[in-house]
Amino acid sequence: MDAFNAIWSTTYEMDEACGTNYHQRFRDYVQYCQDNDLVVDGAMTDPKGDRSLSPSQQEDPDLYVHINEIRPDGIVVTGAKAHQTGSVNSHEHLIMPTCSMREEDADYAVSFAIPSDAEGVTIIYGRQSCDTRKMEEGADIDLGNSTFGGHETLFIMDHVFVPMERVFMCREYQFSNMLVERFAGYHRQSYGGCKVGVGDVLIGAAALAADYNGVPRASHIKDKLIEMVHLNETLYACGIACSAEGKKTKSGNYLIDMLLANVCKQNVTRYPYEITRLAEDIAGGLMVTMPSQADLQHEEVGPLVRKYLAGAKGTDTVNRMRILRLIENLTLGTAAVGYRTESLHGAGSPQAQRIMISRQCNMEAKKELARQIAHIDTSLDKPQGK
Ligand SMILES: Cc1cc2nc3c(=O)[nH]c(=O)nc-3n(C[C@H](O)[C@H](O)[C@H](O)COP(=O)(O)OP(=O)(O)OC[C@H]3O[C@@H](n4cnc5c(N)ncnc54)[C@H](O)[C@@H]3O)c2cc1C
Question: Does 386 score more than 60 pLDDT?
Answer without folding.
Answer: no
